[in-house]
């Protein structure tokens, strides 16, 4: 059994409240998104209107929820959390929308997984702050219009292509969160260490950052696991030696690959002669879920240049062969 930290969790809610940035200055990286959102908020405040609905997309753990919380804080407005797949009936959405207050932010995680009927209730709510309810059935059915408070919807998705175009078109601005730089991840680890009273050597921060998949959620999780080691095996100080040992025990390698990443790349190389291999076949051979290959493993493996996605399937690159110490087959 692997004891690698669970990278597969979808929601950002695992991130400790203590670590959530409360001010723009505390939110590290994604500079252009920050600048654009600041302007959208300031302009809306000048007009005394709620900001346009915003859509954030990007891989999980990059801080979409964190950014939504920060916007609510900066605007001094309440925020309500909802999740696409958790809404089963239109009534669930109606209940949320009718309970919002003026200026409130509604954060809809995984909005690509909203069911279509529910989604249609959202359109007039987003456009005109109203709901068209259907009362009764058959010939006796009547529609009723319900006015809603002026809210801002912040939608988040890891799969923007799966969003229906009517929904996508109703967002006033769309932002893609990218992987962070090594330097920004180091700053995030240093900040989290301060907030959690963890003592870390500078070089140890660099080691943890290097294995954090350029992703804040992973960085914070690894930091906490390494702290456990430092407290049990030492006096609490995270030295580079402790960091290396802890990450080795967690089976996270120097590139941040965990056992499931390694299984995927090694399977492409060993069982499919380097590819191309389709997603279904790869999932079956590795016993990983297609969804987690798509959302968790592949984005990072492509970012580090270990796999390529082609129309025929996934290919292992020369870099991947080198990382695993396997001779790259030169095709004639
Ligand atoms: N936690 C998650 N994302 C963060 C960021 N960009 N800056 C600081 N802390 C974070």
Fraction of residues in H or I helices: 40-55%
Question: Helices and strands: which structural class?
Answer: alpha/beta
Mean pLDDT: 93
Strands side by side in the biggest sheet? 2-3-6-1-7
Work out the strand percent.
5-15%
DSSP summary, beta strand count: 9
The distinct bound ligands, ions and cofactors come out as:
adenine
The largest β sheet comes out as: 5 strands, parallel
Q: Determine the N-to-C terminus distance.
A: 41 Å
Q: How would you explain this protein's 3D organization?
A:
It is a single chain. The chain is an alpha/beta fold and 332 residues long. It folds into 3 domains: 12-176, P-loop containing nucleotide triphosphate hydrolases (Rossmann fold, 3-Layer(aba) Sandwich); 182-249, Helicase, Ruva Protein, domain 3 (Orthogonal Bundle), CATH 1.10.8; 259-323, Winged helix-like DNA-binding domain superfamily/Winged helix DNA-binding domain (Arc Repressor Mutant, subunit A), CATH 1.10.10. The chain has helices at residues 31-46, 64-75, 90-98, 116-128, 165-169, 182-195, 202-210, 216-233, 240-249, 259-271, 279-286, 290-303, 318-323, and strands spanning 54-57, 79-83, 105-109, 130-135, 142-147, 152-157, 173-176, 307-310, 313-316. It is globular. Mean pLDDT is 93; it is low at 1-13. Adenine binds at residues 19, 21, 27-29, 63, 66, 188, 216. Adenine is lined by residues 19, 21, 27-29, 63, 66, 188, 216.
Task: Indicate the topology.
Layout lengths: L30 H16 L7 E4 L6 H12 L3 E5 L6 H9 L6 E5 L6 H13 L1 E6 L6 E6 L4 E6 L7 H5 L3 E4 L5 H14 L6 H9 L5 H18 L6 H10 L9 H13 L7 H8 L3 H14 L3 E4 L2 E4 L1 H6 L9
Parallel strand pairs: 1-6, 1-7, 2-3, 3-6
Antiparallel strand pairs: 4-5, 8-9
Bound molecules: adenine (ADE).
């Amino acid at each position: 059994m692997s004891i690698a930290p669970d990278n597969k969790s979808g929601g950002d809610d695992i991130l400790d409240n203590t670590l959530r940035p409360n001010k723009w200055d505390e939110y590290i990286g994604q500079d252009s998104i920050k600048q654009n959102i600041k302007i959208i908020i300031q302009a809306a405040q000048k007009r005394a209107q709620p900001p346009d609905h915003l859509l954030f997309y990007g891989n999980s753990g990059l801080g979409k929820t964190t950014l939504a919380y920060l916007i609510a804080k900066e605007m001094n407005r309440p925020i309500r959390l909802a999740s696409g797949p958790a809404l089963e009936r239109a009534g669930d959405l109606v209940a949320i929308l009718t309970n919002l207050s003026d200026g409130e932010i509604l954060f809809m995680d995984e909005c690509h997984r909203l069911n279509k009927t529910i989604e249609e209730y959202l359109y007039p709510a987003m456009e005109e702050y109203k709901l068209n309810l259907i009362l009764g059935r058959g010939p006796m059915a009547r529609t009723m219009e319900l006015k809603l408070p002026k809210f801002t919807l912040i939608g988040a998705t890891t799969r923007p292509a799966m969003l229906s175009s009517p929904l996508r078109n109703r967002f006033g601005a769309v932002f893609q969160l990218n992987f962070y730089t090594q330097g920004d991840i180091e700053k995030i680890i240093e900040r989290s260490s301060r907030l959690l009273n963890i003592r870390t050597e500078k070089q140890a921060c660099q080691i943890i950052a290097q294995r954090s998949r350029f992703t804040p959620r992973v960085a914070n999780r690894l930091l906490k696991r390494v702290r456990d080691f430092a407290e049990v095996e030492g006096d609490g100080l995270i030295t580079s030696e402790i960091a290396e040992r802890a990450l080795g025990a967690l089976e996270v390698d120097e590139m941040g690959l965990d056992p499931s990443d390694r299984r995927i790349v090694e399977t492409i190389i060993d069982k499919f002669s380097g590819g191309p291999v389709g997603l279904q076949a790869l999932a079956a051979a590795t016993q990983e879920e297609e969804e987690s290959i798509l959302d968790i493993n592949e984005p990072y493996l492509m970012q580090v240049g270990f796999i390529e996605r082609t129309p025929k399937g996934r290919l292992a690159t020369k870099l991947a062969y080198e990382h695993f110490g396997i001779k790259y087959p030169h095709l004639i």
